[in-house]
Amino acid sequence: xxxQTSWDSYYGxxxxxxxxxxxxxxxxxxxxxxxxxxxxxxxxERILSFLPIASLFKAACVCKRWYDVIHSRKAIWAYRAPxxxxxxxxxxxxxxxxYAYDPDLRKWYNLELPCIEKRNWFISSSSGLVCxxxxxxxxxxxxxxxxxxxxxKLLEVPGVKFPxxxxxxxxxxxxxxxxxxxxVKTKQVPEDFLQWELSIxxxxxxxxxxxxxxxxxxxxxxxxxxxxxxxxxxxCLIHCTGVVGNPIRQGLLMYDLAAKSSGALMSASISVPCxxxxxxxxxxxxxxxxxxxxxxxxxxxxxxGIGIWELHQKEWRDVARMPPKYFQGFGxxxxxxASSGSDDLIYIQxxxxxxxxxxxxxxxxxxWSQKCPVTKRFPLQLFTGFCFLPRPEVAT
Length: 396
Hints:
The chain is mainly β.
């Protein structure tokens, strides 16, 4: 397809041997001598570190020495300047096919994700790793690096087998490369719509085991499908199932993973800033950020704007509102849209189109992405996605 770049054309595993021949009857082999052959490894690593990630893997095919340097996962990655998070956009309703967007080069790559089979799986990312959970059985969980396709399948999560709602979150320590995966399960108490059993389970990569941290029956509230880990605290959006007249139907549940809090879960909950649709929690440089659609008072199924908030202590602070010209650029929103963020970048897209908008928290700047190479083919075709940091040195 014109306008796209195949990731496979960059990602090579074989180094090549170059051979030169003379034009006459006699054939001769020459040892090819190049400037790089005189360079020590540390200088070569520094030079290669300036290449874009896609070009870096293509360079690994030049010769065995370059391959070894690039795939050694050593100093070459330490030299690299931090890259902005990429955004992977699912472009098919039934499969996990899609494209990855590089905001530094403003380029799309045809990237095939490992592990995931359908786009409706639960997804969470942290520091170069992405975690996928099967949306049907909730029993298959994978952690992978989408750039190198390195992957690991985790043990089955304990607790109820078929929860009504599940939330998935992953957190990786940049120094130790250890990571934690948390699954929050919610199951309705039989024949009682007001009572919901919520349980929190954590997987630690060091022990390679699951541990159940807490189980509690919530009254008038239930868990949902949105959670994130920020500075060792698990944050989950919860939803009101009680009095209909409650103006704000969502709340934020907090749980200290390190302290393994033993108190009542609802005692550490607060309200969201306003009634929201498509609320999304994000860890942006160890700051908890909430993105959500602000519904019209007379038409709760239609949103009038999109807001961004940051949590300070237990208070929400306004960060930004999407300007009207960008909001209108999506066309009319219904009550669903996708958002995802990492570092200082937040991506927002409508489920009904491939238009992708990014908000830079540090610069307070909105910007459209380069146009995605896929166009909408039929009215019910939906698009969604997630962001991740491109870090080839990270392994599962």
